[in-house]
């Protein structure tokens, strides 16, 4: 079938309403970037789930980073996407403005050079992410040990996808099908989601991030919903295999163990996080127990939006008090956030 | 004299030597050499003035350096109002420890770029501060606007064509590659645009708006112009000129060329009937060979489209583009 025939189908679909959810921030971003929503009939709804790592991180984590960056001889190193995320009182950028030390880097490996050049400065890397980013931090720790650096630690907020998807399925999110996260599947293999598909009787379509790839996966997912096929189909075969990436899994097993961690709006989900194993605890800057989520504005509906229970436009703050320039919640800050992408 | 020391900012003998040896010898300007407290220069008519500060790291990069950049930035700001740039002033803030051989290269680059741009450096200042060898430059410029030229942001009119003078994102990608130690052949596009703009003005093209595409990138610049004129800009993704190497670089790092800065590209908004002629003039000017029409200024369909920038995506969707949020990449100019 030609792509245009798939687009025709999606545009003219008039059957029962289908609710699909993407659970990957890069998908949220790509769907907005390619204008994919514009190509779907009103009866196919695309919801943005808890796929943006910054958006699902509770405020206690940001508050901890702020506390660290204000310590003597300590610098927090982070990707740019965390800088403007509001903690319970302020963001890292605001803390930086009153003397906090925050270095924006493009790769965790940049910390190695900084730490080597400045042996009197302690560096704490803000290690936020899912299955996709978690492996990079293990490489950082490999190098820290190989170089004998004593002044590098990480503050982790690492999460894995299956726990969140179970939570959504068990707590009334009313999703008909999931666009499975392409990058996560590159690490875990597509079969990672097979157990969930069977348990919750719901289809998964593994998708890439290009315009055509997304259209193909959404078409495939809609067909599975219509035909009641509750399986995982892989539409990203250029990158994703059915089985896991063994190198990454051995790195995971070396450094991480499962933990109960808090997701913004969903609370603590058992076994849904990764923390450093005991033998690597000296590299942990205090990641355990950062579960509190004290939103700056109580009216913010980030949690329900992440669960697909309401759309960004249903939030009373959206586009009025809360804009990308003055974000109240993380979903409005991150390029992968559902509110940021819904705002225009 | 290998490194700048605090004494170079004393105002005494060391300052004098630094000025004579490095600045005056390169800038070769009769007005500057008078060493008066203020430059007195001839000119009359409507004056355009601007100022800009430059803090880029690294100081030298493929395709340019902070010296070339600080002339181009100010020259281009003047050009965007249709002015003919004439005079430039420069203020240096040097951190102690700054490398003198490097400073000499940067000043030479400034002098060469000023000559290329047809501007005279007429006044300057140097301060030395404690620090770690950094070099920062402020330039201010004066230009004269020819009679009948009226180019400003709110002039964009429904029916106008939107032209971009070449590939977007090159400078940003260059600086980022250097900082990340990524080897590629991407070069900064930093260049003075007085030839391009001068040719449009000389040909009496009724140009409505000119804007250089610097920090924030094409997306930010066009959105701001759409807001100024309260119209609806529509551009086509397929028509955006992006160097393939820059495009792959952005793809790898998750960057969007629409938000990547340039230092030698401009947007021209002109009546549709003379759009092709304007493109031909830009293409035949220095640094304009890749110019093309990327979209049009339209009547807003409803209130939500007033002041909006819409990108028609390759697959036929529509994406509303907002101004850049957050930092993008700090210190690219």
Report on this model:
The complex is a heterodimer of chains A (344) and B (333). Chain A is an alpha/beta fold and 344 residues long. Chain A has helices at residues 3-12, 25-33, 59-69, 92-97, 110-117, 134-146, 161-170, 182-188, 194-200, 211-226, 246-255, 302-306, 338-342; strands at residues 18-22, 44-48, 74-78, 102-104, 122-129, 152-159, 177-180, 204-206, 232-234, 256-263, 267-276. A six-stranded mixed sheet of chain A has the order 4-3-5-6-11-10, sandwiched between helices. In chain A, strands 2-1-7-8-9 form a five-stranded parallel sheet. In chain A, helix 1 crosses helix 10 (211-226) and helix 6 crosses helix 11 (246-255). The longest helix of chain A has 16 residues, at 211-226. Chain B is α+β, with helices and mostly antiparallel strands and 333 residues long. Chain B has helices at residues 13-27, 30-33, 66-79, 100-117, 170-180, 194-202, 217-229, 244-253, 275-283, and strands at 46-54, 60-61, 64-65, 84-95, 120-129, 135-145, 160-164, 209-212, 232-236, 266-271, 292-298, 308-312, 318-321. In chain B, strands 8-10-7-11-9-12-13 form a seven-stranded mixed sheet, sandwiched between helices. In chain B, strands 1-6-4-5 form a four-stranded mixed sheet. In chain B, strands 2-3 form a two-stranded antiparallel sheet.
Tell me the layout of helices and strands:
The complex is a heterodimer of chains A (344) and B (333).
Chain A: H1 3-12, E1 18-22, H2 25-33, E2 44-48, H3 59-69, E3 74-78, H4 92-97, E4 102-104, H5 110-117, E5 122-129, H6 134-146, E6 152-159, H7 161-170, E7 177-180, H8 182-188, H9 194-200, E8 204-206, H10 211-226, E9 232-234, H11 246-255, E10 256-263, E11 267-276, H12 302-306, H13 338-342
Parallel strand pairs in A: 1-2, 1-7, 3-4, 3-5, 5-6, 7-8, 8-9
Antiparallel strand pairs in A: 6-11, 10-11
Chain B: H1 13-27, H2 30-33, E1 46-54, E2 60-61, E3 64-65, H3 66-79, E4 84-95, H4 100-117, E5 120-129, E6 135-145, E7 160-164, H5 170-180, H6 194-202, E8 209-212, H7 217-229, E9 232-236, H8 244-253, E10 266-271, H9 275-283, E11 292-298, E12 308-312, E13 318-321
Parallel strand pairs in B: 4-5, 9-12
Antiparallel strand pairs in B: 1-6, 2-3, 4-6, 7-10, 7-11, 8-10, 9-11, 12-13
Helix pairs in contact in B: 1-4, 3-4, 6-9
